[in-house]
Amino acid sequence: xxxxxxxxxxCLALAACASTLGPALLDGAFSAIKKxxxxxxxxNYGDGYREDFDKVLSALTDVxxxxxxxxxxxxxxxxxxxxxxxxxxxxxxxxxxxxxxSGSGSAGGASAEPALALEFALLKEVVVDGRSxxxxxxxxxxxxxRFGANGEGDNLKLSFRAAGECWVYVLSIDSTxxxxxxxxxxxxxxxxxxKPHTTYEVPPGNVWATLDSYRGVEHVYLVASRTQRTExxxxxxQFAARVRDVDSRRVLESRPKVELVADAARLSRGWDxxxxxxxxxxxxxxxxxxxxxxxxxxxRGAGELVLTRWFKHE
Length: 314
Fold this sequence. Notes:
By secondary structure, this protein is of the alpha+beta class. Helices cover 21% and strands 28% of the residues.
């Protein structure tokens, strides 16, 4: 029997392209995200919500700037630019190509500490030969809620595993601008810093999440940092206590009209190496353990790591 969670996991997805960006372009990338989300967030949830939302994006900008600073320090110490081992994936086709073979960071000079490396997957349950199998979700894939003509809808969870101790923050933003912290949170039951080579699941164990009734393009942003990000934690705390109606008896057509984000808001990846990998210890709704295909992403040198995933919610 399929286990379901009352958690409305409103978002999620994996990279469209990776690039090396200077601080000005990173600011521009985050400004584009603000432009995408802040207008609809304000329209739907008010000015106070907008202010809290802006604090989160400002804290994310600081993380991305630290990534660029770490890369610049590496290039200065080595006397030459760090090698660019960018990886890209096609959001339109759901396929991904990889570059780089080690996932260990830059080839352009020694770094004082190893590069951040992390595997990250968005998963749905698929019935194969009568049993539930955790299956990777491609960027741009359509995921169904339980309120339409697609039966019970899809069960979802995300899973990640870091190569070394670090602080991980995962947040979702749905098409109405609604933001939720997913890790650390009451959903995950875990705290930072995360342990090396340990599989984390959100929700944990045999519990899986279902989508709420707010349809559109959904996103998840994951940040991995060597240090605790107190500003980001404080900003996300403002959203943890917010509650939104997800009444399953709701007639969608009777809901007051909300403004929606129509396009994927992809963030600068913050990673420079990606290669195929597998995460072990992912639990299906019956409690069985699986290994699932994913990618390992590594930040260059001393830089931080930022990943984006997205899907279409129908």
